[in-house]
Structure formats: C-alpha cells, structure tokens
Design goal:
By secondary structure, the protein is α+β, with helices and mostly antiparallel strands. The protein contains ten helices and eleven strands. The strands form two sheets. Strands 1, 2, 3, 4, 5, 6 and 11 form a seven-stranded mixed beta sheet that branches. Strands 8-9-7-10 form a four-stranded antiparallel beta sheet, covered by helices on one side. It is globular.
Length: 307
Amino acid sequence: MTNLEGRTVSVRVPTTSANLGPGFDTLGIALAFYDDLEVTATKPGTISIEVHGEGEGQVPLDASHLVVRAILETFKRAGQPAPGLALKATNRIPHGRGMGSSGAAVVSGIMAAKGLLDGIATISDKTMLDIATEFENHPDNVAPALFGGLSIAWEDENGPHTKKLSVHRGVSPLVLVSSTKMSTALARSLQPESVPHADAVFNVSRSALLVAAMVQSPELLFAATEDRLHQKYRATAMPETEALIRTLRAEGHAAVVSGAGPSVLVLASDPAQRLRAKELAEKTHPQWLPLLLAVDNKGATISIHQK
C-alpha cells in the first residue's frame, strides 16, 4: 500500500454553460471563470474542509461534501484505498445560477483524486467522464468542465461520450448572473414528456446550425440559438430571465438561458457586439451582474506538489 500522506494537489475547474439554446442536454461550453481546490492526503479516516467564497457556511463540511464524494468514488474505481483528506476550496462559480457549479465540484474531486494517484493508478478520460456523469446525470456540463472548449455530449450503451471542438475566436461570451437561484430539479420538472414534431425538427436544425456558428460562422449565432424545446416551458419559473432574454434578442443579441437558469448567456459574434449587449442589459436590467468571459480551451487542470 502506497503512503499518500502529505501529497498535495491543486485543481482549477472552469465554469460551464449548458444547452446554449437549442442543444438541450447535448451542448456545453467552458468559460474562463474558475473554482480552485487544494487537497492534501492525510491519515486515513480523517476529513477536514475549508470553503471560501460561494457556498461558505452553507455546504456540508464532512464526507457528504460533493467534492469528497467524487474523490472517494474515483479512488474506489481505481481500486485504491482512500486516504484522509484535507480540502481548501476557493469557490467563485455562483451556486444555483445555471453556471455548472455542481458539475465543477464533481470534476474538481475527480481531478484531485487523479492527481493524488499520479504514478500509482491511471484514471482515463473516459473513466472521469463516466464518474462525473453518474454524479450529474447528464454529461453536458461536466464534459466541458473536464476538457474545455465546446462539447458535444451523447450517451449510448457504453455510457457517456464527448467530442471537444475549438470555438471560433470571434465568439465573445457574456454571462449575466441573476441575483436569485434556480433549482435544476425544478427546471427539469417543467419539461413536458413530449413536444410537437415541428418543434423537434426546429431544434434539430438549430442545434446543427449552432455547431457551425460556434466553430466557423459566428454571424449565424442569433438564428442558431433559437429554441422551442425547453426554454418556453421553464419561463414561468423565471419571469425575469425571460424578460431579459426578450430585451436582448429584440436587439439582435443571441441570448439564451444558461444551463437550468436563471442566469443568461449571450453568445456575441465579436467583442463590440458583446459590449453593446452588456450596455443594454445594464440599462434595462441593472440588477444582473455582467461577466465578460473568454472561452476556456484547457478544461480542468492539476498541479501536483511533491512531498
């Protein structure tokens, strides 16, 4: 048995935005806004957790903590006995705002375990995606958090898969962060079991167009972000979100619900258009916090500190 006590790893995980309008449970993007985590292996059976920033004083500080659960599951998958853990989390990704905070927590735990097991056991990309998807139920947030860029995610009898694409350099994301929270479970509960055939065809066409717009033709982003599959059904639970999106789209901005909401993602075709969208939002809906973010192409990163 390898003694891991004293081994320390640092992990940085980007925020994500899923769906991007029509790509429900399929498309996601990593953005340059990060949670940081430091984990030190300690005496087996011991756990200590420090949380700074988002979730401080709210999340559990024991083995039920999402990061700890992800670390322990990854050790289990690797067939390795888990050490004790000392965690220091610096959280910047807002919780309950549709920016992938729970997915980031899961990914940070998986990556921390991978770092602690460096030289002892190999954790493949597929294994990491499998574990993360089991925690989150859908791969659309965890795939870009793990690997960066634009992610197309799907599942089959062999579990989840993802294809990473590089985003066109003109694409300029703006996130407008809501001051209120939204439960992902509540948002999903508002979805109907079936949708009209015409709406399904509409979304298939827009999803295909969105991939082209993101990687090659950002001038098509406004048309490509139209959706009839999920946003209109969730609008009753997020009236302020719907109002902001209507305001932005009325002026030609490609605004969508970020993940399950209530935050709003604007996919501008260039930095100047993004600035106009920001100014419009600040003028009409000043209570929303604007974040001008780059696309993150690396995904989660690990630094290993030797004993």
